[in-house]
Write a structure and sequence with these properties.
By secondary structure, the chain is α/β, with parallel strands linked by helices. It contains 15 helices and 10 strands. The chain has 2 domains: 217 residues, Rossmann fold (3-Layer(aba) Sandwich); 97 residues, Rossmann fold (3-Layer(aba) Sandwich). The strands form 2 sheets. The chain has a 6-stranded mixed beta sheet, sandwiched between helices. It has a 4-stranded parallel beta sheet with strand order 5-4-3-6, with helices on both faces. It is globular and about 55 Å long.
């Protein structure tokens, strides 16, 4: 196992670490939807994961590897909500305290859930303040272990277990995916999946999925270097609105030949409705971008076996009601 970057061995180790803690989430399929699309589409239902998001995987893997001394002092994370909840619950399970820095515009349900897992929540303005600067100051002052949402080897390795599961679940059906697409903020989930697929399903093409105006991963992959978002736009996809991909994750996305897909807000909302109608699951906007990209043909899917990772289901109830009623 590498000490400087996630690899297949670290993902295998993570799978052992989270076994019995993280849920082995189902791979859902709708015959009716397949007939409409002309392919076999599977939805990896990470909204059914503990805390309602894949983020618990990486958080638990990372926190479980801290020393006794680190656990005694506590952990810190910044997050728009899903990593926050994952860290809060993982910290509770491991018997340590968690301090979480969250944007002021975080959906109330995510803040409430994070506090419900026992974490101390602080807020900041994502447009005028730097979460990195605030986080570094807090950790230095209080001696907390910083559990970054994606630039952390153990976090990425934990997220990569999603890829291991998808490949194994399809293998049980005698299949291999032609395409796996996953939401991308900092790139931890997609890079972890790419590592797993390169080893166990090398013919599978991996795609990031992002909302328009926050397509830094797609643009960066074309440019060959990390590019940032302007910060001048807004989106309902709060779970994946990061400034840019990570220092650890972007080289992995490049190394494994990942490509980027971009969707509109309207396409995201339609994907949320389709997830409800055909799969009977609740999916949040940021968690629905991969499904939206595959449903709308952002890459060729006819006759193929394709997988969309539904990365989370922590949607604001009022927003979800508006989406289901098509009130946009």
């Amino acid at each position: 196992m590498s000490d400087t970057a996630p690899d297949f061995a670290s993902i295998q180790n993570a799978a052992q670490t989270i076994r019995g803690q993280a849920a082995y989430t189902p791979l859902l399929e709708s015959t009716a939807l397949n007939e409409t699309l002309g392919c076999r589409l599977f939805l990896k239902a990470e909204m059914l994961q503990k805390t309602g998001s894949f983020k618990f995987r990486g958080a638990f893997n990372a926190i479980s590897r801290l020393t006794k001394e680190q656990l005694a002092k506590g952990v810190f994370a910044y997050s728009s909500g899903n990593h926050a909840q994952g860290v809060a619950l993982a910290a509770k399970i491991m018997g340590t305290k968690a301090t979480i820095l969250m944007p002021e515009d975080t959906p109330a349900i995510k803040v409430a859930n994070t506090k419900g897992y026992g974490a101390k929540v602080l807020t900041f303005n994502r447009k005028t303040e730097s979460r990195e600067d605030i986080g570094n100051a807090i950790c230095a002052r209080e001696g907390l272990a910083f559990i970054k949402p994606f630039d952390n080897i153990n976090v990425v390795s934990g997220q990569g277990t999603v890829g291991l599961e998808i490949i194994d679940q399809l293998a049980e059906l005698g299949m291999q995916a032609d395409i796996i697409a996953a939401p991308c903020g900092g790139g931890g989930l997609v890079s972890g999946i790419a590592i797993a697929a390169a080893k166990n399903s090398p013919a599978t093409k991996i795609f990031t999925a992002e909302p328009e105006n926050f397509d830094d991963a797609a643009r960066s992959l074309v440019a060959g270097t990390r590019l940032s978002n302007s910060g001048d736009h807004s989106s309902s996809c709060d779970a994946i609105l990061t400034p840019m991909t990570g220092e650890i994750t972007f080289p992995l996305l490049k190394q494994y030949g990942v490509n980027g897909l971009v969707v509109t807000e309207a396409e995201v909302f339609e994907a949320m409705r389709i997830a409800f109608s055909y799969f009977k699951v609740v999916i949040e906007p940021g968690g629905a971008v991969a499904l939206a990209a595959l449903l709308t043909g952002k890459t060729a899917t006819a006759g193929k076996i394709i997988v969309a990772v539904g990365s989370g289901g922590n949607v604001d109830p009022a927003l979800y009601c508006k989406v289901l009623s098509s009130d946009f």
